[in-house]
Every structure is written in structure tokens, then in C-alpha cells.
Amino acid sequence: MIEQFANRLYTAEGPVVSFFGFPYPTRMAFAPLSDGSVWVWSPVALTEELFAFIGDLGTVRHIVAPNKIHHLFLGEWVAQWPDAKLYAPPGLARRRKDLNFDAELGVDPDAAWAPEIDQVIFRGSFAMEEVVFFHRESRTAIFCDLIQRHPEAAMTGWRGRLMRLDGLVGDRGSTPREWRASFFRRSPARNARRKVLSWNPERLLIAHGECAHHGAGDIIERALSWI
Known about the structure:
Layout: E1 2-6, E2 9-13, E3 17-19, E4 22-24, E5 27-32, E6 37-41, H1 48-57, E7 59-64, H2 74-80, E8 85-88, H3 92-95, E9 103-104, E10 117-122, E11 130-135, E12 140-143, H4 157-165, H5 177-181, H6 187-198, E13 203-206, H7 216-223
Parallel strand pairs: 6-7, 7-8, 8-9, 12-13
Antiparallel strand pairs: 1-2, 2-5, 3-4, 5-6, 10-11, 11-12
């Protein structure tokens, strides 16, 4: 399913994937840039429908993975758009040596999308760091796994109970507790949270669970209060 999330910002739902035995729905985002290119975030499985839809928007020139566990479908996107630049988050290039990354995402956005999309890295975890983005025109903060808000109705059985205990369900969804514990140095993450809130985001787009079209700043501040 492909939807227009906001002006010049789109989402596409991907397949449910297994993560340590837990079913995770997947979602990607993509944005046409002013130069006619398309910026792609956390791509899901590429379908004919998705290929055709993006083709009407422009040419994919930038493919970004926000953290080192969102990489399953990068290869097929690069195969389809071989001239696109592939950007790795911290730690992924070492894991996926079969992929030729053009650059590692840093604190500052690439010049190709900096006027339209900002970014920041949540550092301080020994396990995984995540790059969070901000689509300026729509005032949308784009999170991957740092904020999860799985729908209540889908959380059934013992897996659902564990997800609730982990604080990943509903309006008060947050960050997996085991990932929180890996942030031995929290001051870098606090600085990143401060930058996200300084964007004054109105919308929240996430990979797993319910997004929000209003009040994103309050949602993010509450979800990341553990930092």
C-alpha cells in the first residue's frame, strides 16, 4: 500500500518480517527532491506497483538505511537503480560487505538533500546508532526503531504481552528496553533529542506502528523521556 503522508512525502507498506520470532510490519518513506531526484528511506521489498509509482515522481538517486538492521532490501533497490548513491548508517558497512556503499551517514545531511531534509545521529549506544531525519516542508520527523507504536489490536498472545511490557505498543510506544540499556553514554543521545525537538516537528513517521499527523513534538518528547 502506497500513501501520500504529507506534501512531497510518501510511504509504502512492506511485508511483515520476523525479528527474533516477533512479527514486525515494515514501512518505508520516499520524497521527491527539487532537482527531480527521489530520496528513499529504509526501502521495503520492491514491487512492480512501487517501481511504477516512484518512476512517475523522478529517478531514485539516494538510498539511505537509518540503522544497521534495516538493510534486507537494499540490494534489490541498488540493482534497479545502479546509479543511485547508497548511504550506510554507522556499523552497517561492516555487516554488509556485499554492498558497495558510497558514504556513511554523518551528523550533517548530504549536500544533495540538505536544503530539504535534515538529520541527526542518536549516538551513545554500544549496540546500534540510528540516524533520524526531518522533512522540512512537511515538518515530519522520521524515526525507524527508536520509536515504536505497534497497534493494540495486533498485540495478541504471549508475544503481544511481551511487546507491551517492552513499552512498544499504542500511543505511549517508545524504544525497546534492551536497546535503552545499551546507551551507556546518554549525553550524545540527549543532544540528538534536543535537536529533533528544535525542529518543532508536527508529524511523526515511523517504520513500525502508528504514525502521527499532529503533535509530533510531544509524542517524541514523551517516547524518548528515558534518555
